[in-house]
Specification:
This protein is mainly α. The chain has one domain. The protein contains two helices and no strands. It binds zinc ion. Zinc ion binds next to loops. The site of zinc ion has 8 residues, from loops.
Amino acid sequence: MSDDATARPAKHARCATCGAVVPAKAENPAFPFCSSRCKMVDLGRWLDGSYVASRPLGPDDADELDRIVSLSTDPDTLH
Ligand SMILES: [Zn+2]
């Protein structure tokens, strides 16, 4: 009996960009995205302003973007 796939809940996250199952963090440098491509797409949305409030960017926003970029490029800083 090796039917443990139904016995335990799925621990995989879903890629915020394409919705694909995200590989485990230990083996996925692009975590929490499914691939580095999706990570860059998401980052591009941030930089494109899609996720940013509709006001001019100020110094504080630059700091926030720096933080987001560093988190996105180095998943190890998440913990
Ligand atoms: Zn994806």
